[in-house]
Structures are given as C-alpha cells and as structure tokens.
Design a protein that fits this description.
258 residues; alpha/beta; 2 domains
C-alpha cells in the first residue's frame, strides 16, 4: 500500500512499466503457500507433475505473437510453475508487463477465459466450473472502463466457445456474489466464505454428482434446473453473521474471523 503516491506518479509508472502494479507481491504469496506444501522448492511444471501426478495447464495471451498459449509440463517443462501462473493472471494495464522468451504475456482471459475447449478431447469426461459476469462493473473511473472492455470480450468469446463443446463436457454455472470484476483486489472473509458455500451447493446438482462428492451435504437437495443455481436458497446475502451461514448438520469447523 502506498498512501503517498500522487496521481502524477501513477501516470508515470503506467507509461514506464505499462501497468499500475507489480504482480510480484501476489506471486510471492503463492510461492509461500507452495513452500508450506512442498518444502522450500518452487518446482518447475515438469517437477510439479512428477510430485503430484496432476497436470497444471496455465493459459496466457502472447501479445507479441497475438495468440493464446497453454503452458504445461510437456511444452514448457523447465518453466517454474509460479512463472506460468504469473503470465496467466497478468491483467493488462493493471499489472506491469511480463516478458518471457522474447515475448510479452498478459492474462489468458483476454483470448480464452474458459479453456474447457482445450481439455475437450471428445473422450474423457470433463467438468467445467464457470462464474459468469452477472453484475457489470462500475462505470466510474479507469478500473470500471477497463473492466467493461475485458468483460465484453470475454462474454462473446465464451458464447462462441460453449456452442462447440462436446457432449462429454458438463458445465456448472455458479451465480455467486456480486463483484467488481478485475478491479476487486480485496475481498472480505465473509464474502469469501459465501462464495465458497455457493460452490459447495452447486457441486451437489444432480448432473455433477459423479464428478464431485462433498462430505456432510448429503441431505441438501438440488433446487434448480440443469446448469442453474440460486444461492438465495442457501443463505440470506444481506446477513454477514457466520452463525446464520453454517448449519449444525454440516461436517465443517467454524471458520475463524478477524
């Protein structure tokens, strides 16, 4: 946080680094979480696959060559997993430019915000979890304007992409908390938990039961049609009290609050 930075300093920083903020502090938090799980090692994509036997694919937009790229352990084995994440979530103009292999990269959402088509090989069963932009960003300020530009591109590309997926793909659409789009960097603990509960409830929709098993929620019945979910049936959004959110029958510990 830099309370004493002037507007002129911000403008100079944007022109110098082609972005408002450095993404490094965000990546450092991810690296710390990895170290807790795996030790002091920050693995490459290849090493991460060897350790976990799970394939991580990060989608990034190569603005130099004007194309989408998919980083995984096969095509970029020696790339640090956190560097792949860094490129895949670098929101243009908000975060400063990132260079890799003589190319500049930004968030993969610019060209493929819902990359279920990349995984769709017409053979395996695929579960896609999609959070639509149900609340447009504010019309005020630079952030709101940037948000409208990004969301308009994403929505149209998603509509085209979803028309061409195979029958082996099941998509769960979670209509969750109202958000401020790409400019919402600080989310309260209460809001995070309500979003988490939205996901739990959506996971119990009939069409996805063979993919997701959530322990402790066997008695909760689906309340809506395929690919639909109304979070108002789970809790009152206007209530921020933890006690009203959690049910004694659920097999979860009470979360800590600040």
């Amino acid at each position: 946080r830099h309370d004493n930075i002037s507007f002129l300093d911000v403008i100079k920083n944007v022109f110098k680094n082609v972005g408002l903020l450095s993404i490094d502090s965000f990546i450092l938090k991810i690296e710390n979480l990895i170290k807790v799980k795996l030790g002091n090692e920050i693995p490459t994509l290849e090493r991460l696959y060897e350790i976990t036997k799970k394939e991580l694919i990060c989608v990034a937009t190569n603005v130099t060559e004007r194309k989408v790229e998919y980083f995984d352990h096969k095509n970029h084995p020696k790339l640090k997993c956190t560097d792949a994440v860094k490129m895949s979530c670098s929101i243009p103009l908000m975060f400063q430019k990132i260079r890799y292999n003589n190319c500049y990269y930004v968030d993969g959402a610019m060209l493929n915000n819902f990359a279920v088509d990349y995984a769709d090989k017409k053979t395996n069963k695929i579960l896609g979890i999609y959070l639509p932009n149900i609340d447009p960003p504010s019309d005020e300020g630079f952030g709101g304007y940037l948000g409208h530009i990004i969301i308009s591109m994403q929505d149209e590309m998603n509509r085209v992409r979803l028309r061409n997926i195979g029958d082996n793909v099941t998509i769960v659409v979670i209509y969750s908390e109202k958000n401020d789009g790409v400019t919402e960097l600080n989310i309260s603990s209460n809001k995070k938990m309500r979003m988490f509960l939205d996901g739990i409830k959506a996971a119990k929709i009939k069409d996805t039961e063979e993919y997701i098993l959530v322990e402790g929620l066997e008695n909760i019945q689906p309340v809506s049609e395929k690919f639909k979910f109304d979070p108002d049936h789970l809790y009152d959004k206007s209530d921020d009290n933890w006690d009203d959110v959690w049910n004694n029958d659920w097999d979860f510990d009470q979360p800590e609050t600040d």
